[in-house]
């Protein structure tokens, strides 16, 4: 027995240096849970299996401000991961706070990537943010995807309401009158025409508000400075429109995220407004025969002057560790990992996201990837990213302000005028 | 001889110090040092990671003119008014009913205590369902669509209701112990003297003899409710229209959403001073009354 233990100990001691020497460990932090988390893990595992030089070890943390607060504290304390996921919409805060290490085009070239390989709609904004808040000409993170809001359609109900084209596809919708008429027809069937979540979910309310507000030509930033004047005109009109949907029974009053999905997937709502990340939910329900109807997907339609649709982008970024900057060996590993992820982004697209890496976005896999191909081409064009200002973006003050002031107005607890006034004050005071 | 005593005394001291050391280290490291650090940060313009410049009393001047801080202070006081006395009264009432129960007493005690052992996130989730606008049982019974946590008049009372439901079990426990401690002879003597009507027994025997427990419950309640954060954060997030934002939540917003660690520290120090003063006043007031 003693001998056996001794032998085991020797074997253990021998194996430690072997593991340590042969592989460089790369620590990864992400905020990807649910279906996104599953797909992300497949890619990370794929990378680890594809080579033996690096080993990526991931930790999933809470999405939103807890994640970004932890990263910032980590950067200051010198306790960061080597690589992390990061929202493009949080770049202004991240760069200002010194949390992100710039990545040059030359560094990208060492692993066969280049800035021009990525969706220009994303890199243009990213480079603009770099110029405004940091160093011009560099990226503070490599874009992985665009994620956006789309419409989930119950095609059976659409058929009953006469909203399908002759070939059985969803007839294009254009203009608010046509959209409202469609909602009325659906209401006549005795179902909820349109559903989105509001209760405890400022993100979804913000995405809907921002999309409609932007389509009407509203903006938040002018000449690099915050400019909220249009909220009093276009903002009020937008908020009134959404509030009217509630009062007219065209949308439910104050339902939670999961309830909205349940309402749609049980066939009680005809259209769901949600992020493309719920596509796998529908795919899975359909595959297991739990969806009692035929569903379709469409990019958010053009209801006003433009087809701008809220979007954000997951990026892969390197923390700017203030005490021990990333070593050359680790940097090489991180860049190798990023290149692998980008080139395998078709796996990520299974989660409904639009890859940022052009060879994948325009490649053959995505064209045939159902049901993502139902909206991908249009949605990639409509990308309308968050206002470039530290008040906006994931985990930033605008979300809290939406919950505090806009949601009560659309649920009928306060007036639209009060809602906009309070929202304006909150954004202004967060400057 | 003398040196031996001295040495022995020294030995005693050494043992005492050794025994005190672990607690002292933990206390200094995790309580005194952070408190001192927060005090220092309150004079800086630090971000959330504590990096910033010394700016003197600027934060305190800003605090005095900060409308939202005063609003959050008022909301906290409003919440205290809605919970401290009601929670104590409900606790006392339930305890007295339980005390009268002949059968199933332990079972009933467990029922009332059960919510207290739940984590706050579970409690708030239960109530978000119960008071759900569209599918909640309350609105189903009332046949309407009240947004309990989203409309100004109902939001804070709803948070208070949830808090009372959640924490009253602990007060019940203290009151039951207090009631048990009142000698039965008192009641028997009173009955002999002709005081046997319910309210008069309560007024002249139960209430005065229970007062030490009541004042303790009130004090614990007051300290706990000054620190209200979790329920508001999880149920209303300070909305609608900042009408339920409380001091600690405002501190959280400043620290973690707006990245103003220094100013958030100033808010903490202000709350610390307020709690200290009110606790001292209450302690003095209640114990004086208890002695009379």
Portion of residues in helices of chain B? Answer: over 70%
Unreliable residue runs of chain A: none
Molecular shape of chain A: globular
Number of domains of chain A: 2
Q: If classified by CATH, what would the architecture of chain B be?
A: Orthogonal Bundle
Given the structure, what is the number of helices of chain A?
19
Question: What structural class should be given to the helix and strand makeup of chain B?
Answer: mainly alpha
What is the CATH C level class of the largest domain in chain A, in words?
Answer: Alpha Beta
| Average predicted local confidence, pLDDT of chain A | 91
Keywords:
heterodimer, A: 431 residues, alpha/beta, D-Maltodextrin-Binding Protein, domain 2, 7-stranded mixed sheet, 5-stranded mixed sheet, B: 292 residues, mainly alpha, MetI-like fold, flat
Question: Can you give a write-up of this model?
Answer:
The complex is a heterodimer of chains A (431) and B (292). In chain A, strands 5, 6, 9, 10, 11, 13 and 14 form a seven-stranded mixed sheet that branches. Chain A is built from 19 helices and 14 strands. In chain A, a hairpin with a 2-residue loop joins strand 7 and strand 8 (225-226). Chain A is α/β, with parallel strands linked by helices and 431 residues long. The mean pLDDT of chain A is 91. Chain A has two domains: 2-144 and 313-384, D-Maltodextrin-Binding Protein, domain 2, CATH 3.40.190.10; 149-309 and 396-429, D-Maltodextrin-Binding Protein, domain 2 (3-Layer(aba) Sandwich). In chain A, helix 9 (202-215) packs across helix 18 (397-410). In chain A, 48% of the residues lie in helices and 15% in strands. Chain A has helices at 2-22, 34-50, 65-77, 91-96, 105-109, 120-133, 155-160, 176-188, 202-215, 234-247, 257-265, 279-287, 328-343, 345-349, 358-361, 364-368, 376-382, 397-410, 416-429, and strands spanning 24-30, 54-60, 83-87, 142-143, 145-154, 192-195, 221-222, 225-226, 269-275, 295-299, 309-312, 314-317, 354-355, 383-385. With 292 residues, chain B is mostly helical. Chain B has one domain (67-291): MetI-like (MetI-like fold, Orthogonal Bundle). Chain B has helices spanning 2-41, 58-64, 67-100, 105-113, 120-130, 137-142, 152-181, 184-192, 198-226, 230-235, 247-257, 261-291. The N and C termini of chain B lie far apart (53 Å). At the A-B interface, helix 3 and helix 18 of A face helix 11 of B.
């Amino acid at each position: 027995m003693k001998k056996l233990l001794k032998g085991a100990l020797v074997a253990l001691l021998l194996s430690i240096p072997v593991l340590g020497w042969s592989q460089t460990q790369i620590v990864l932090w992400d905020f990807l849970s649910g279906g996104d988390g599953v797909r992300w893990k497949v890619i990370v595992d794929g990378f680890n299996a594809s080579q033996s030089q690096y080993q990526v070890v991931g930790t999933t943390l809470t999405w939103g401000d807890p994640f970004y607060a932890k990263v910032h504290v980590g950067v200051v304390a010198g306790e960061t991961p080597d690589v992390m996921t990061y929202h493009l919409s949080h770049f202004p805060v991240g760069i200002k706070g010194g949390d992100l290490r710039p990545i040059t085009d030359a560094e990208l070239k060492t692993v066969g990537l280049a800035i021009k390989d990525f969706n220009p709609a994303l890199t243009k904004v990213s480079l603009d943010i770099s110029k405004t808040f940091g160093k011009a000409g560099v990226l503070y993170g490599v874009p992985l995807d665009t994620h956006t809001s789309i419409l989930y359609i119950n095609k059976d109900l659409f058929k009953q309401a006469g909203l399908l084209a002759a070939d059985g596809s969803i007839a294009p919708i254009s203009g608010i009158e046509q959209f409202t008429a469609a909602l009325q027809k659906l209401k006549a069937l005795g179902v909820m025409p349109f559903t989105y979540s509001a209760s405890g979910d400022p993100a979804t309310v913000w995405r809907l508000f921002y999309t409609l507000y932007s389509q009407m030509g509203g903006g938040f930033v002018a000449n690099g400075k915050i400019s909220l004047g249009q909220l009093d005109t276009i903002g009020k009109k937008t908020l009134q429109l959404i509030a009217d949907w509630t009062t007219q029974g065209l949308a439910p009053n104050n339902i939670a995220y999961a309830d909205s999905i349940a309402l749609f997937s049980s066939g009680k709502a005809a259209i769901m407004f949600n992020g493309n990340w719920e596509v796998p939910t529908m795919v899975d329900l359909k595959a297991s025969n739990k969806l009692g109807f035929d569903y379709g997907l469409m990019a958010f339609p053009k209801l006003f002057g433009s087809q701008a649709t809220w979007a954000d982008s997951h990026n892969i970024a390197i923390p700017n560790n203030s005490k021990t900057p990333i070593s050359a060996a680790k940097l090489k590993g991180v860049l190798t990992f990023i290149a692998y992820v980008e080139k395998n982004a078709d796996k990520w697209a299974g989660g409904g996201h639009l890859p940022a890496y052009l060879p994948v976005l325009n490649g053959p896999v995505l064209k045939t990837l159902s049901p993502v191909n139902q909206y991908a081409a249009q949605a990639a064009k409509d990308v309308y990213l968050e206002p470039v200002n530290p008040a906006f973006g994931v985990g930033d003050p605008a979300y809290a302000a939406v919950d505090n002031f806009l949601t009560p107005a659309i649920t009928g607890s306060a007036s639209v005028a009060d809602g906009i006034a309070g929202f304006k004050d909150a954004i202004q005071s967060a400057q | 001889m003398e040196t031996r005593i001295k040495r022995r005394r020294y030995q005693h001291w050494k043992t005492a110090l050794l025994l005190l050391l672990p607690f002292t280290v933990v206390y200094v490291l995790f309580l005194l040092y952070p408190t001192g650090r927060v005090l220092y940060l309150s004079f800086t313009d630090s971000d959330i990671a504590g990096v910033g410049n010394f700016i003197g009393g600027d934060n305190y001047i800003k605090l005095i003119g900060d409308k939202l801080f005063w609003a959050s202070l008022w909301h906290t006081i409003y919440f205290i008014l809605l919970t401290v006395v009601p929670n104590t009264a409900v606790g006392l009432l339930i305890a007295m009913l339980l005390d009268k129960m002949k059968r199933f007493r332990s079972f009933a005690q467990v029922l009332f205590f059960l919510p207290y052992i739940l984590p706050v996130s579970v409690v708030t989730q239960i109530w978000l369902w119960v008071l759900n606008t569209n599918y909640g049982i309350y609105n189903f019974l009332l046949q309407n669509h009240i947004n309990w946590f989203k409309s100004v008049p109902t939001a804070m009372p709803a948070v208070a209701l949830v808090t009372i439901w959640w924490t009253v079990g602990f007060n019940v426990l203290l009151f039951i112990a207090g009631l048990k401690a009142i000698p039965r002879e008192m009641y028997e003597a009173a009955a002999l003297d002709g005081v046997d009507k319910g309210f008069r027994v309560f007024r002249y025997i139960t209430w005065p003899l229970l007062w030490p427990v009541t004042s303790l419950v009130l004090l614990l309640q007051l300290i706990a409710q000054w620190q209200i954060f979790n329920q508001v954060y999880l149920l209303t997030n300070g909305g609608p229209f900042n009408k339920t934002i409380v001091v600690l939540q405002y501190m959280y917003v400043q620290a973690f959403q707006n990245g103003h660690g220094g100013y958030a520290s100033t808010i903490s120090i202000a709350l610390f001073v307020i709690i200290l003063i009110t606790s001292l006043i209450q302690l003095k007031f209640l114990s004086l009354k208890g002695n009379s």
